[in-house]
Every structure is written in structure tokens, then in C-alpha cells.
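ok so I'm stuck.
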Amino acid sequence: MTSLGAFVFFVAAAATCGSAFYLPGVAPKEYVQGEKVSIKVNSLTSTKTQIPFEYYKLPFCKPEAGIVNAAENLGEVLTANMIENTGFEIEMGVKKVCKVLCRKQFNAKMVNKFVRRIENEYVVNLLVDNLPAATEVQIQDGGGILPVYEHGYPIGGAIISPGKKKNTHFLNNHLRMTIKWHQPEGMGKEGHRIVGFLVEPFSVKHTYKGKWSDKTTDLTSCSQLSDVKHVYDQGYPQRIDQAGEVIFTYDVLWEQSDVRWASRWDVYLSMNNRVDDDIHWFSIINSLLIVLFLTGMVAMIMMRTLHRDLTRYNRIPTDEEKAEEREESGWKLVHGDVFRPPAYPMLFSVTIGTGIQVFLMMIITLVFAAVGFLSPANRGSLMIALLILFVLMGVFAGYHAARTYKMFNGKQWQRCTLATAFLYPGIIFAIIFILDLIEWGEGSAKAIPFGSLCAVIALWFGVSVPLTFLGAYFGYRKDVDKQPVQTQDIPRQIPEQPWYLSTMAVMVVGGILPFGAVFVELFFILSSLWLDQYYYVFGFLLLVVLILIVTCAEMTIVLTYFQLCAEDYRWWWKSVVTSGSSAFYLFAYSAFYYTTRLHIVGFGAGFLYFGYMAIFSLLFFLFTGVIGYISAYWFNMKIYSAVKVD
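replied:
not stuck anymore, here's the structure
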């Protein structure tokens, strides 16, 4: 097996086995019988608004010891993982039925807060032992019932009343928590590991006799029940349309499980696993077919057309041909202009440098994610990895921007380096800052705190910028590649180009095949970003990205060859936009996804969606654009070094 084949085999194995692969270096926690188990809560989330809120922004029951925020890294803050403690009192292996959490008197303002969140379909995300709560939903699958697990549980619901203008809202004020535990072999009776956390919400209008007392009052709505499986079937939900009393209660059930601790995330990652895996493999096969088609075209150009051109150009002319002064044509005719600097050479150099930075950031992140180092159990790890790698890759951005600018005989190297450090990162930061102002105005938990924003700026100015200048220093000191042909002083006149080689036509054709190689996988990525789903098949994604790289390179080489044959030597920018135009298809697809798959309400939420997708598309443009440039530059160096120039 070749090294490439071995690598593909390894990635495919990671793709198919990733659901049972846990974060390396994370040790499980063993609980003894009766030991306290902490229940924590994450931000309230909704796929309808895409604006998360802190849990205690609603008047839920607060812990007696006060609210304590869990230790967070920068990645958790940027991804709105605001984890806080709760008032649930749970001990390992201790069953509890209808335990009172608290009693609340809601006024009209509190009621309106709950109604707004219920209308926008917000869910509560509880955590136990770093494992998120899941709610089981029964769906029809052919002739049977298939259990599907959703993240968190809904705050409440609405009952549509025929003939009434307003819905009747109810609050899920009782939780039945089923915690599954596993006892590994050799651990003894006291070694319990939590491997599952299911929550079943209920809406119950609790009743009691006499005056309320936190310690002595018995709830008549559930005190007579002996079988917890049939609790609360009386059909009296807790309405939340008007001010009044609400009692929050919960059950705790313990269930032994055969699921091992390393596989406890499978319930979240393997929903419809067989169907999803089939779709992922279909995506890869579809992408491979595109690559094979392009490879055939490139092989035809290289082995037939280009070989024939080189044979004709390098053939020693006969006396008759010398007398007739054989006329040159095709791509050899522009040998004196093919390496002429493009328009806006500094901007081009900055684009290439930042593209290298984004390319390395994405590839290294994908490799780490494919081998399991960016597990969903480590919240915020993916975001912090992207941020740190983008900052560290600044040294390569400065190096390649300087080398490219020096190749164009640029003199303003300080300005070029400053533009590399600030242009594209500044655009991204400006968009994020505007979106953050919207989040702040909405009171969202995703709004970046001032301290975290200062930390991001410190990483940018204190690490990325110095590394960019360091890379530029070494880039300017190193000699540029020797070009195989000499550039003439007077530029050659470019003949009128056919319509299919115009910049717009090249963008339309050049971007559609690279986008076609990834659009199936893009659906799952967008679902994980905007439908609150976990994305874990990074092995599949790495394979698709490798296919994307090959597709971009081959597509750019083909179109660059056609352009040179038409005697148009302005290939620099076209090589970038040829494959980089797939980013425009990506943004268009995100708009299609927004209208067909999402049900986002409110202008602010829609603006946030398209703002973040604009950032995603810009990064994708830089990623694919630099692939096109590198492949076109390599192709031109090869063919012009192989031809004899008089």
C-alpha cells in the first residue's frame, strides 16, 4: 500500500469509527454509592432565533448557595457555552420521586418572559458529568417506532385552541431524569461511571393541602403514586399565561447500562447513523467521480495537447521553415509576458499570504479533529483550535506574502506586511464586532464579553502581528524562484477573448465543480451550526477536503491552459477567482438552506446568520483561491521551463 493509500485508509477508518473514539487524555470519573452528583446547565438555545440566552435570565429556581459559573476557556465563551450550577440535589444511586426544587410566584413580567421563550421554541440544556441531557422522541420509521434523541428539553409548549386568537401556553415544571451508569470490570461495587442522561419533561399543575411550607408540605398531585412510570397522567398542565404560583419538581431514576464510558456520546452522535453514513459515502463517491473526470481532462491536456505543443515548439526548424520564418502561436507566444506582475500586486500578495494562513489553519485543525483531539466533550475546543492556529500561522502568511511581493519587485514591503497582518483579519473582526453589537442588544449569551474581546485583540496584536512581521523578514531575505523565461519590457497586446474565457464565465465554470465536491457534506456542517446538532465525522470531512484540493487544482490548471492558448497572460488573479468562486456558490447555497431548512424569525437573527455565513464564505474563498494560485503557478513554471525560447 502506498503512503497516500495508507493515509486514506487511516482517515476512512477514523470516519467510520469516530463515534466511539473519545477525547485522548480525558479520564473518567468514578462515583461511589450516595456521592453527590452535580447537575449543571448550559445556555438556553433555539433553532428558531439562533440567539442563546443564559439560563437564569428566566426566573428558574436558583441554587441556595448562589449561582457559580463553571471555569470556561476562550473557546467556550466564543461559542456561548455559559455553564452554571443548579439547585438539583442528586446522589449516586439514590432514587427520588417528586422532589420539590422550589416554589415560585410569577408576576405578569415573568410570565411574558416564559411565553416569549416558549413561542420561540427554546430548550434547556442540562449537564451531568459533562454529558448533555437528551430527550427521547418517538418517530414513525416504516412500519415501526424509532427512538430519536434530541438535545435538551423544551421549556414548554403551546396548545392551539380552535377559534381563539391566542395559544394556551404551558410550562414544563417537572423533570424525570434517568441517569445511566456502567460498572467496569475490576472496579468493584463502588466504581460507577455515568454513561447516559435522559430527561423527560412534564407540565403538572401541582396541588397541596393547607398553607405552603418548604419542608413539610406534601404535594397531593403526586404523593399517592407508587409507580413512577405512570406519574402525572391526570391531564392538568401548568399553564403559564397568567401570573400565579408554579412549583418545580423532579424525579431521579438510576439505570445500569452496558454502554462503556468511551462510547457514552454515541446516543448523540449516531442518530440515524446508518442513513447518515450512507449519505457521507455517497458524498465521497460523488466527489471522486468529479475528480476522475477532471483528472481525465488534465491527463488529456498533459499527455496529448501539451505534449504535442512542446514537440512542435522545440522541434528544430528546417531550412524551408527558417526561410518562411515560422510563426509562433498558442501559449508559447506569451512567454515574454506570462510572469508579468498582475494588477494590484500588493493586494494579490496579501491575498495569497492570508490564503496560506487559512489553508494551514484548516488542514491542521481537520487532522487533529479526525484523530479525536477535538471531541465534542471538550466544549469550545474546535473554536479555540481554529483561533490559536490562525494566530500562529501568521508567520507563514507574512513569509509567503513577502515572497510573492518580492517576486513582483515590490518596494513597499512595510505596507505589504501591515496589510497582511490587518486587512483580512480586520474585515473578519469588523463583521464579528457588528454581529456582537446585535447580540449585545438582544441580551444574548453569545455576545462576547469585553474581557474576552480584549483577549482576542491581544492574541491578534500581541502574537499574530509580530509573527507576520517575523515571517515577512525571512521571506524578504530569501531569493525568489528563478523564472524560466524573461519578461519583456513592453507588454504584448492581448487579442479579443471569446466570451467563455471572460472572468465571469471562468468564475461560473471554475467554482461549480469544487462546490459540487463538497455541497453534500456542507449540508451536515450547516445543520450542526444552525440546527443544534453535533458534527463528528471529521474523517469524512478530511477526505472531502482532500478531494476538494485536487478538484480546485485540476480545474484551475485546465482553465489556465485554455486562457494562455488564447494569448491572455493575465492569469494571476484569474487563478485565484477560478477556484475561489466556489465561495459564491457556498454563500448562495447558505441562502437556499436558510429559506428551505430553517425557520428563523426576526431581522436580527437573519442578519446574524448571513453575517456569519459571509465570514465562512470569505475564509472558503481564501482557502480555495490559494489552491488555484499555487497549482496555476506550478503549471506555468513547468511548461515554460520545458519549452525552448529563441
